[in-house]
Amino acid sequence: MDPNHEILFEPVRIGPKTLRNRFYQVPHCSGFGTEKPWTQAAHRGVKAEGGWAAVCTEYAPFSPGSDEAPLVAARFWDEDDMRALRLMTERAHEHGALAGIELHHSGAHAANDQTRWPGLGPSQIASDLAPHVVPKAMEPADIRRVQEEWVAAAQRARDCGFDIVYVYGAHSYLPMQFLSGFYNKRTDGYGGSLENRARFWLETLEQVREVVGDDCAVVTRIAVDALGPAGIHVGEALAFVRLADDLVDLWDVNVGSIAYWSKDSGTSRYFPEGYQFEWTGRVREATAKPIVGVARMTDPDLMASTVRSGILDLIGGARPSIADPFLPQKIAEGRTDEIRECTGSNVCIMKVDGHGHLGCIQNATAGEEHRRGWHPERFDRAANADRAVLVVGAGPAGMECAVTLGKRGFDAVHLVEASSEIGGRMRWVRRLPTLGDWGRIVDWRRIQLDKLANVAVVTGSRLTAGTVREYGARIVVLATGSHWSGDGLQASTHEPIDGADPTAPHVMTPEQVALDGKRPPGRRVLVYDAEGYYVGSGIAELLADEGFETHLVTTFEVVSPISDLTLEGPMLRQHLHERGVIAHRGVTLERVGSQVVSGVDEFEEPFLLEADGIVLVTQQVSDDALYHELMADPTALDVAGIEAVFRIGDCVAPRMISEAIFDGHRLAREIDGPHPAYPMPYDRERGIPHAG
Ligand code: ADP
């Protein structure tokens, strides 16, 4: 271990418990909750195994009055939920970690769509997160009831084996709603002065501490600056920390609110590593108790200096722990170059909130630990490891496949790439404005490829069907990717756009702009985004930065709607606005001319814009010609001794980077299975059977 990092491995006492080191997996959503208890246990367990000293659940609503459905939370109502989460505490303990539970009440934000209880808030004001929810203003009996529920849940948590119990107030949930004048307009003893507004939180802490304080560490999570209206600002936060300090064993600090979650789970596009310290770094002024905080930290030098400077005692990680569950162990063993660094793309959040099951762009095994039995660091030798494998194309899918095949002990794997560098689409994606950290996808794989003696990387070699057959491989994996359609083929019409021809000087594809340097013949450019994620907006920003008058025309009602699922949307739109990009929403283009493009708006009214050039970001098309050519001649494959040809990534169907990586990983894991071309079934959890 680098001596500079030794400080990260000192034990830290929090109340009655001791953390074995300073790595703390803060609560984060997973989509597992108590619905998929084995998945939950396996996901947190692998982090415990990887060296995290504490692993926590996601938010754990303890009352039907705080119902998160259809989102999945670690619901913690009763015996059944205890049995579900006991799997997790046992797994954490097996690996020497403490287990934490983030007991939670949404208060005014709770829609309670399934339980059909009314929402509860300090005052009757519509939720800023879900404005259709108008809560009941809590009466003293409601306050007592919620506090009793909190205490009962804390007792259940202790009995379930949890070492750390939260009174969760961050993200503008109930305790913060009482503390913040934005929510709290009360005139009784729970409103008005800071002391009054703090009363609900302080009483709850006191009562929880009273019943479990000797057995469990009592932690509170607080957003020390809402960075917007929905909470408090740092001055008030420090005053609250002073008021509550005696009741707390560990301060878990962050920024933002649930409506401004984008400022807490800040993406790499708009927030550098360590960005939260501007606010959370001030908490030390008010407490000598241990502090844990987050800021997408993956750099051990930054971690060590953060501890040394006293800003934090514990390195909190949610996304970095998903991208690399073995981050602590790699630092401990001096293998820092092997850390699979979080890209800050928030694909994990899209996966949880949008798709209902955690996944990660960098770590294909995240969320698959139980259901597919994948371990991030353990690979068994493939039954057919003696076969020579040729992987064609070193984009995300090909790189991941070659790395995983290498780890599965194949005697010889060749990864052959046509261009002079590996990375595939990442070669240009990482060069779009603000997307540099996504380059970590290539960087980690490059380091792995360098270290694997059984994997050779060949660049600058475009293979044909003939050269593939002559290569000498027994198994061929095609990862030849995709390209953006130059003729404007698009979802809304299912046809190309009239007049769109990427060989003309005024028509461009994203690759032509970002990789080949093609530019419009005049100053006024139109970027047409019918896809809705980062490419259209990224190209628009690139061109605007170069001084083009840039119009972003999109079929969607908002610019880049998919970026809202990753919490990038608001910043992205602000960013484009500041750079003078002019947005036109709800438009479908039908014709491209050399000076004018035309189409219809959402009401089928004509849309016309003069432009010197257009960039078409409509859809991608698979580069699968090589595959079809090889498969068309099975005899030639036989003669060449090729026993199997597989396809992965975009050359099967163009998808998100995370899915291309998953595809490459999946094939390598199952390449000695009964039907490698198709994914094996996985364990579909159906929860813990009801006790009664
Ligand atoms: P994916 O996301 O599926 O990995 P990409 O488009 O990012 O796909 O990457 C595909 C890579 O395959 C590109 O780098 C491309 O240069 C390479 N490639 C495509 N065809 C060939 C070929 N015939 N020989 C070698 N490399 C190829």
Describe the structure.
With 692 residues, the chain is of the alpha/beta class. Helix content is 30%, strand content 17%. It is built from 22 helices and 27 strands. The strands form 7 sheets. An 8-stranded parallel β-barrel has the order 3-4-5-8-9-10-11-12, surrounded by 6 helices. Strands 15-14-13-16-27 form a 5-stranded parallel sheet, sandwiched between helices. Strand 4, helix 2 and strand 5 form a beta-alpha-beta unit. The radius of gyration is 27 Å and the shape is globular. The mean pLDDT is 96. The structure holds adenosine-5'-diphosphate (ADP).
Question: How is this structure best summarized?
Answer:
This protein is of the alpha/beta class and 692 residues long.
Determine Rg (CA atoms, Å).
27 Å
Task: Give the names of the bound compounds.
Answer: adenosine-5'-diphosphate
Mean pLDDT, as a whole number?
96
Taking pLDDT < 50 over at least 5 consecutive residues as the criterion, the unreliable ranges are none
Proportion of residues in β-strands: 15-25%
Distance linking N and C termini: 52 Å
Helix content: 25-40%
Oligomer: single chain
> Biggest sheet: strands, sense, closure?
8 strands, parallel, barrel
Total number of helical segments? Answer: 22
Looking at the structure, what is the overall shape? Answer: globular
Structural class: alpha/beta
Give the secondary structure arrangement, pairings included.
Layout: E1 12-14, E2 17-19, E3 23-25, H1 37-49, E4 54-61, H2 79-94, E5 98-104, E6 120-121, E7 136-137, H3 140-159, E8 164-168, H4 174-179, H5 194-212, E9 217-225, H6 234-244, E10 250-255, H7 277-280, E11 291-293, H8 300-308, E12 314-317, H9 319-323, H10 327-332, H11 347-355, E13 389-392, H12 396-407, E14 413-416, H13 426-429, H14 440-451, E15 455-458, H15 465-470, E16 475-478, E17 482-484, E18 507-508, H16 510-514, E19 524-529, H17 534-545, E20 549-554, H18 562-565, H19 569-578, E21 582-584, E22 588-592, E23 596-600, E24 606-610, E25 613-617, E26 620-622, H20 625-631, H21 634-639, E27 644-647, H22 657-670
Parallel strand pairs: 3-4, 3-12, 4-5, 5-8, 6-7, 8-9, 9-10, 10-11, 11-12, 13-14, 13-16, 14-15, 16-27, 18-25, 19-20, 19-25, 20-21
Antiparallel strand pairs: 1-2, 17-26, 22-23, 23-24
Helix pairs in contact: 1-2, 3-5, 5-6, 12-14, 12-22
The site of adenosine-5'-diphosphate has 25 residues, from helix 12.
